[in-house]
Amino acid sequence: MEVLEYDLVVLGSGLAGMRAALQAAKADDKLKIAIVSKLHAMRSHSVSAEGGISGVLYTGESDSAKLHAYDTIKGSDYLSDQDAVEILVGNAPGEIKLFDNLGVPWNKGEKGKIELRAFGGMSVPRTAFAADKTGFFMLSTLYDTLLGMPNVKFFHEYMATKLFVEDSKFKGLFTIDMATGDSVVFVSKACIIATGGFARIFDFTTTAHSSTGDGIALAYEAGMQLKDMEFVQFHPTALVPSGILITEASRGEGGYLVNSKGERFMERYAKSKMELAPRDIISRAIITEIEAGRGIKDKRFGNYEYVHLDLRHLGEAKIDERLPMIKEISMKMAGIDPSKEPIPVRPAAHFTMGGINTDIKGRISAGARHGTLGLWAAGECGCISVHGANRLGSNSLSQCVIWGRITGNEAARFASTSKKPSGNRIMADIEKEEGRINSLLERKEGENPYAIREELRRTMDASFGVYRNSAAMSRGRKKVIELRKRFKNIVVRDKSRVYNTNLRDALEIGNAVELALVVAECAINRKETRGAHSRKEYPKRDDRSWLKHTIAQKSGNRVKITYSKVEITKWQPEERKY
Ligand SMILES: Cc1cc2nc3c(=O)[nH]c(=O)nc-3n(C[C@H](O)[C@H](O)[C@H](O)COP(=O)(O)OP(=O)(O)OC[C@H]3O[C@@H](n4cnc5c(N)ncnc54)[C@H](O)[C@@H]3O)c2cc1C
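Above are the sequence and the flavin-adenine dinucleotide SMILES. Below is the predicted complex in structure-token form.
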């Protein structure tokens, strides 16, 4: 076992983590910063972001920060904290320009003006993009920049399994170096958790296999609060049968959604916005069409029913210029050339609005009056809350980089003025965690964790999908509780130490089971329909009883639920029509 001392540890190397590290390294070049990631940094899920990043680059034409804020708040079904949204919209343009300076090849028009495309729920086009590979270009630009900074060190393929927190203070992080299997403990003054979302607890999902919510589960286990975990976004257009995302930019560029009768059915659900309504509304529309018998089925695409995303009228040249990856994905994964045939799509779990409860600066609160000293969360794992009950497309990348910058600054300031930590104080905790991992490897008989994973994902799809109802959710919760019990007796068959992906998977499955129970409890508890949480028995939003955030905290074996206030600054809740 090795103990490494740093001033700041950034857990996660997606857009939020790398942006945070860049900011902290710039804020104080004497700080020793570690970026710890269970994947190679460039394999972080952010690399797959496709359509773009939101931000009002050109005010005075038809757009303004105020309009961006209004769209975001309305899109969130009025659950977002409006002070946080104002920070988002105020800072997004600066971040897009920063990435321009760092070298992201934004699509540009004449005179080098960054082009903007339309996205769902946005009143005007305000999404900057680099073809349909925006995440790849933003992440690689950050990675290249960080490689040149002597005070930043990457720890690729180190799996974090435990946060050490004592008296509401961050003490350290337990990791396994995947290449050797050795335990490595990071002791530092400050830590930013940037471990991404948890949509992989579902079966049909657009997200990376690594999006298992580890950082959220670690924080929950360490006593931190989680917020709004019932709100899981289903993206309307995932390719059937693989679930790979067909970006909303396809509709932003003019694509149509069509049912088996050849109707552009969005006319029935969002007459003014049509295919550019927010995702919760389009996902419900697709499932409603399928349930009404207007879905499409074709053996070529497995057993799923779906609808068509038709891009043919855009023409080959536009598809090649603006949506080259969508063309490649459709051809390779479904044998479809989108300039000649419509693409089979249906909703898939895509993004998790809920996460670790933070204040407006990304600081984590364990419920203590002054929060947990030395811990922040940025990116999809944190709930500030900007997205409320439903995120608008392209607002996540802005959220990741803005709160990457904010938490990077805050953590750097904290680390610059704090005392050096000591590894000795947490020796007992370290030994306990090593013991837990060793006992998993030593157990000879038990249940196959992959069976638990499969049952868990199917349960989440069946019980906590686009439409939810009490009976199905209760069945789902019962099943998750059973899986949680069975998980205690799993066996890790691979006993080796070097690249033991069987062990890593088992640890991820344990995290996923815990988070699934939190989602289940929070979803059952919220008796209304708001944004992505759509309940058949309670089909309306109920501001009188439910205009509040759900806060979940571990209490023994149970999930304790309390509430917190939604911050309303300028925009009073109103009926959400598109
Ligand atoms: C296919 C797809 C396309 C998208 N396109 C867009 C888009 O165009 N615009 C937009 O705004 N949003 C988009 N989104 C959403 C957006 O991409 C994500 O919300 C965002 O990239 C999340 O970034 P992050 O930095 O929070 O986390 P991630 O990029 O998910 O990174 C998480 C990091 O944490 C590390 N990690 C996790 N667990 C551990 C552990 N136990 N130990 C060590 N390290 C760990 C991982 O290795 C990784 O480095 C898209 C989402 C999907 C699924």
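The radius of gyration is 23 Å.
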